[in-house]
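Now for today's protein.

===
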Amino acid sequence: MTKQPRKRALLIVDVQNGFCPGGNLPVAEGDQIVPIINAMTASGFYDIVVVSQDWHPAGHGSFASTHGRNVFELGELGGQPQVMWPDHCVQNTKDAEFHPDLDMSKVAYTQQKGRDPNIDSYSAFRDNAEDKKTGLDTWLSQQGVYLLDVCGLATDYCVKFSALDAKRMMLRHVIVRFIEDASRGITPEGVDDAKKEMKKEGIEIIDSAVVLAKGAHRAEHDFLVNFHTALRKGVDTKWSIILWNYIHQIGRLEDDELRRDRMWPHFLKHVTRFWIEGLKPSEAAKKWAAMRDNYDTTLQDRFPASGVASTWQTMIELVDQDTWDQLDSTVEYWVDQQEADRLKEIADHG
């Protein structure tokens, strides 16, 4: 029997027009998580990307207008406490559509929820009465998911309930994490309470930087696999043995996360330097390779060493465009984020 591959999945919860500024039930700064999510999906870290979509019929029982109630009053629906919401995310309306800037190109599965007019469904896994499952837990298990990251809108409602149900309903070995900076909540108090509840259930709380760092390493790993294949097909350059030794070392460190992560930033630091100068990593590789035989420049300007430049020349020959795109998008987000943090620190401390 063939062993099921272990896969990493991202669940993006309800990043729809209705929950972003300008929507019928907007979450403050809801649109600001879109570029963060896009960077994560482009990083190559995830094998599977899943989205949930609030998909209410007109006149849904959770709408205040259905009962002639005031919005945000507390009522009851399907035997469960129910906040009376404004009409939102009604099927086949613009309000229910995903945010236009959300990159859907890598989405493998869309889980609609809230279709039953007689019960609400905050969770992407089941309704609020916990009677009817959506089937998402079964689908993820069938894909061999061992790690599920959850983010989106809103932290204190649909994101929280989706993360909690993932932890409770999926197989015990599945790791569930909440990505805080890729989510926004309705109230600060609600967000704090949601985080406490998730932590209590064993859900790890992380930032997107963790994903992007791993994604950058995974992009490199894709290159390593390609290079290994090329070597076995007879590709041979002056630097192939040097590079292969490095590849072999990275491979040996696959399960030694601390040591491996100490090596990767050195590579990324050099890539970032060229990005700041206006070059993508793929362009930087060509620049580095061109320096290999350029001895008319000073040693300081001839950076990096000729051996590293030759390594990049080999990468140019062997790395496919998808891997370059993953690396480019990951570093772009990192540099932008570092610059934003630097400017904020200057503003905070004068």
User: Anything to note?
Assistant: Strands lie at 7-13, 48-54, 74-77, 80-83, 107-113, 145-153, 175-184, 204-206. Confidence is low (pLDDT under 50) at residues 227-251, 263-277, 291-311. Residues 299 and 305 are 9 Å apart (CA to CA). The longest strand covers residues 175-184.
